[in-house]
Write a structure and sequence with these properties.
By secondary structure, the chain is an alpha/beta fold. It has one domain: Rossmann fold. The protein has a four-stranded parallel sheet with strand order 2-1-3-4. Helix 4 links the parallel strand 3 and strand 4. The longest helix has 13 residues.
Length: about 90
């Protein structure tokens, strides 16, 4: 399973690699010369390379959803659920 980490979470690719995942960073790919400036380019790159896109960009998540592409969306709802679960542990 290959994973593409969107620009906002650059560095997660390295952490995932340490855990044995085949992960790549949009930011690092750009620095290597890949043309990944738009959401469309990023999504298309993930699709062409059979990758799961990890993103905080709601539009990218919706585009993946519409096109049946694998993704993990870290939107405010997802983050809120994590916060709520952790707060419940204090009771």
């Amino acid at each position: 399973m290959k994973i593409l980490i969107d620009e906002m979470d650059d560095g997660w690719d390295e952490k995932l690699k340490e855990l044995g995942f085949d992960a790549f960073s949009v930011k690092k790919l750009r620095m290597a010369g890949y043309k990944l400036k738009t959401d469309y380019s990023v999504i298309n790159y993930a699709k062409e390379n059979n990758m799961i896109l990890v993103t905080r960009d709601t539009e990218s998540g919706e585009a993946c959803e519409e096109n049946d592409l694998p993704y993990v969306l870290l939107d405010n709802d997802s983050i809120f659920k994590i916060v709520l679960d952790r707060l419940k542990n204090f009771n």
